[in-house]
Amino acid sequence: MSLYEILGTVQIGLVFGLVSLGAYISFRILDFPDLTVEGSFPLGAAVLATLIVNWGWNPWAATVAAGVAGFAAGFVTAWLNVRFNILHILSGILLAIALYSVNLRIMGGPNKPLLGTPTIFSMFDGWHTPAYMLTPILILLLVAVVKFALDLFLSTGIGLSMRAAGANPAMAVANGVNVGHMKLLGIGLANALTAFAGGLFAQIFGAADAYMGIGVIIIGLASVIVGMSILPSRTVVQATFACVVGAMLYRFAVAFALDADWLGFKASDVQLITAVLVALTLVGQSSRSTMGRLLKRIGPR
Amino acid sequence: MIELSDIVVTFNRGTPLETPALRGINLTVPSGQFITVIGSNGAGKSTALNVIAGIIAPLAGRVGIDGIDVTGWPTNRRARLISRVFQDPKMGTCEDLTIVENFALAHGRTEPRRFRFAIDRTMREQTAERLRLLKLGLENRLDDKVGLLSGGQRQAVSLLMATTGNTRVLLLDEHTAALDPKTGAFVMELTQQIVADLKLTAVMVTHSMAQALQVGERTIMFHRGEIVFDVAGAERRAMSVVDLLALFKRDQGEELSDDALLLG
């Protein structure tokens, strides 16, 4: 891999680190398998691209707006579950397919290019260092700020209530926590992060696309699982760090798989590679299975 | 103070499985009184506890806590006034959180911290101080996950958590039944000490008649959704388990079929 390719993988890995933090909130903290992200990732991209291209918004404001739109999407998913008792996984699927149409409406078509329009990375225009080196640094800063803010949030009274609401709902209720409100807030937050990532991805990729959400859920989950099975995740600070690193590792694993000619993979095999990677990690975690013991023996631990 | 007036609860209403669980219960527990509740399986004692806690909404009747009508309040809102220790030690604490985090959560029941940090130095010191009561050395393990503790330790921690803050009413749902006899006795002793120190209004459901008479100052017995007797004071002090059984048989005119009431 060249430096250019490595930095490219790092920046995409970091962007998906945000998706991974979202998956950490929904899957790990709230125990709410949220499929909304398949729709909220392209939603963030669509909102961002439309605001920049059609409305002439400042790219930073548009990126924030993308996150707000994601929060709304997640809020609706959680609301369907909390208010009407629709199964969490089904609420997420409903939102994901609904958002597919919504995204087409927002963009007025299946995609919206951002070529020649300002993005948050345009600020590097005219610098002596090439943009491909500066972009990952800016994204790293953004992800670090988000990770730090999330750590702080999860250590507040509300953050603690949210963690309890997911881990032991009956105990949380007995201690005065409104579990429904925690789901609304948490799933909203998870999708805000995902849509924010979608907005960043569109600016790197140069376009928003209605199909860019396919497989986001499994990438987020893969990152959480890979990160937490490799790094310690006892505390929140460790766990969020593991999520971001996991996203990066996952991205590199895919890049290597595609890069290795002897494996004979094509770019279109990404989803298959992801699925196999996640399955292998999960099998490896359950030491009861023969495969699991085998993987444990040959693995690092 | 707890006031239950004409509480009616029916399970599976409108189906062939319709079962009356509580048939118009009236019960007043004055502030600072510690009462014990006995009854065979399905007698309605746990249902009554769940009605007080807000987990089961009664079909008819009124629930009052310290003079406030809480009948329409959801469980989490009632948590400001009521705290509870469950039978299963796993239920009362959150195993993924550390000891001090669990205490911070319990503290938030009466004093929510919202966007302020849940844990500060004061919280750690208060928690350590309360844990010293247990003499189990837990005050040195504030940052250990609760999942690492034994069942007895977790139940003791649950009890301390339930009595943190300004709660006035404590509900105990067979909270020593899942523990070994020695640990159970330890938790029971701790319960009596805390209830007396904090002058709490407490309701303890138990399966053991001996325990029901030894602990607290008043005993009530449920049978088939009704309170069949209610003893306190000198009458109760003079009572033995045998007397209690005789009273039960007289009231019901039937043989007691539940071994669990006799044993333990």
Write the layout of secondary structure elements.
The complex is a heterodimer of chains A (301) and B (264).
Chain A: H1 3-29, H2 37-53, H3 59-84, H4 88-107, E1 111-113, H5 131-154, H6 157-167, H7 169-174, H8 179-205, E2 207-209, H9 216-230, H10 236-259, H11 270-285, H12 290-298
Antiparallel strand pairs in A: 1-2
Helix pairs in contact in A: 1-5, 1-8, 1-9, 1-10, 2-3, 2-4, 2-8, 3-4, 3-8, 5-10, 6-8, 9-10, 9-11, 11-12
Chain B: E1 2-11, E2 19-29, E3 34-39, H1 45-53, E4 60-65, E5 68-69, H2 75-78, E6 82-85, H3 89-92, H4 99-107, H5 121-132, H6 151-162, E7 169-173, H7 181-198, E8 201-205, H8 209-214, E9 218-223, E10 226-232, H9 233-237, H10 241-252, H11 259-262
Give the structure's gist in a few sentences.
The complex is a heterodimer of chains A (301) and B (264). Chain A is mainly α.
Features:
heterodimer; A: 301 residues; mainly alpha; two-stranded antiparallel sheet; globular; B: 264 residues; alpha/beta; Rossmann fold; 4-stranded antiparallel sheet; 10 strands; 23% strand
3D structure, described in words:
The complex is a heterodimer of chains A (301) and B (264). With 301 residues, chain A is mostly helical. Chain A has a domain of 210 residues. Chain A is built from 12 helices and 2 strands, in the order ααααβααααβαααα. Chain A has a two-stranded antiparallel sheet. Chain A is globular and about 60 Å long. Chain A starts with a helix and ends with a helix. The mean pLDDT of chain A is 90. The two termini of chain B are 30 Å apart. The model of chain B has no long low-confidence stretch (mean pLDDT 88). In chain B, strands 6-7-8-3-9-10 form a 6-stranded mixed β-sheet, sandwiched between helices. Chain B is globular. In chain B, a hairpin with a 2-residue loop joins strand 4 and strand 5. In chain B, 45% of the residues are buried. In chain B, helix 4 packs parallel to helix 6 and helix 6 runs parallel beside helix 7. With 264 residues, chain B is of the alpha/beta class. In chain B, 36% of the residues lie in helices and 23% in strands. Chain B has a single domain, classed as P-loop containing nucleotide triphosphate hydrolases (Rossmann fold, 3-Layer(aba) Sandwich). At the A-B interface, helix 6 and helix 7 of A face helix 2, helix 3 and helix 4 of B.
